Amino acid sequence: MRIRNVSLFALMAIAFLIVGLSGCEKMTSVIPPGETEPVDIIDVTIGIALARTGDNAEPYGNPMYSGLELAREEQRLHGVNFKFFVYDNKSTVEGAKEAVQYLVNQDVPAIVGVGISTHLKEAFPIAQEAGVVAFSPISSAAGLSGEVGDYAFRAGLATNILIPKGVIQTHAALQYQSAAIIYDNTDTYSTSVKDELATALGTANVDILATEAFATTDTDFMTQLTNINSMAPDVVFVAALSTQMVQIIEQADALGVSSRLIVPDLTKVEVDELGAAAGNAVAFAGWSELDDSPKNQAFVQSYMDEHGSIPSPWAAQAYASLNILANAIREAGSTEAAAIRDALAQTSQFDTVLGSFSFDPNGEAIYEQIVVLTVVEDGTLQPLMSQ
Questions:
Q1: Is the domain of 187 the same as that of 234?
Q2: Pair 52, 147 in one domain
Q3: CA dihedral 212, 218, 219, 221 (to 10 degrees)
């Protein structure tokens, strides 16, 4: 492996290091639960680049880390012993680039993390150039894995899959004829959602009465919401990251916006923060704790036992990502980046909490599960069709 000088400053910049067994050699065999034949344990150190501080930590980084840790504990019993280098990307583009560069310098074969699409666009090319697998559990702006290259993979459904299906389902349930969109035109994910909404709503013959833009740094959305409210659309789609999402919903409630809010990727984190202001907003995502498949319910129970709370989609997708990565390492029989990349690319119909999982030729996730939810009176997310 390549040896690089690492400065004391760089070492101190690590958020923390989870100490585990080092090396890539085979170790003592274990017998997995429910099995009779022992399996050899493969030790592998990977990089984890997550927001541990800043705006993206609570809604995204912390749940992702919890999902990764749960999968790490389980995978030790199934032949892959992960050691984590964890680096705080500080919820910024520069922090994400710094994190990926630092982890690349540690000669890890794979990096998991970087959930925000705007950050991924800048950070993942660093891993691509170095020949290190870069695997984002939640980034979902359309086309990014293919744009970065063959070492980039994503577990979240891209917006060009999620948004059309979400529009079909919400339109069938709510029968809306007109819509407005408010979106962050400085955020890659939000802009991608807006573009996919425009296409999907047009296909559904829904009139788009207004499209209002804002910037990630904005905190006052009253002008945009007032303009939308004057048009009286049946529904308003909110395309934003968590912080701005909460602010928009709060201000829409204060303004008395009568249109139904449809908020892709609204989770329990935002619902709890919003309280009554969440009203009867509708959300759709690629995973829900309400899915009653045995694998999903086992994960939900394990997560609740460990953390005392229901997992978010970001925890579930991170959990699935590490399981997918572990499967690729077992299939490759190697901890070399190129071998892991090739095995990931061949992943097909692998059973996960997200459903039967495959990668398309560009490293994008393919699975079928879409769940439409609404915020009900007691402030919880429940199936829309149950109302």
A1: yes
A2: yes
A3: -10
Single out the residue in 239, 260, 285 at which a domain terminates. Answer: 285
- Tens of pLDDT along 163-217? 999 999 999 999 999 999 999 999 999 999 999 999 999 999 999 999 999 999 9
Domain residues for the domain of 120 are 8-157+293-366
Do the Cβ atoms of 139 and 114 come closer than 8 Å? Answer: yes
382: Cβ–Cβ under 8 A, 6 or more apart, which residues? 290, 373, 374, 376
Residue 276: give its domain's CATH number: 3.40.50.2300
Token digits of residue 218: 């904005």
- The answer to whether residues 166 and 50 belong to one domain is no
Q: What percent of the chain has pLDDT over 90?
A: 81
Full-model pTM: 0.90
Last residue of a domain, one of 285, 303, 330: 285
Contact predicate 81/26, CB 8 Å = no
Position 369: which residue type? Q
The 10s digit of each residue's pLDDT in 301-350 is 999 999 999 999 999 999 999 999 999 999 999 999 999 999 999 999 99
Q: What is the pLDDT of residues 16-38, one digit of tens each?
A: 444 343 334 444 455 556 554 55
DSSP reduced 3-state for 9: helix
Q: Mean pLDDT of all residues in the chain?
A: 90
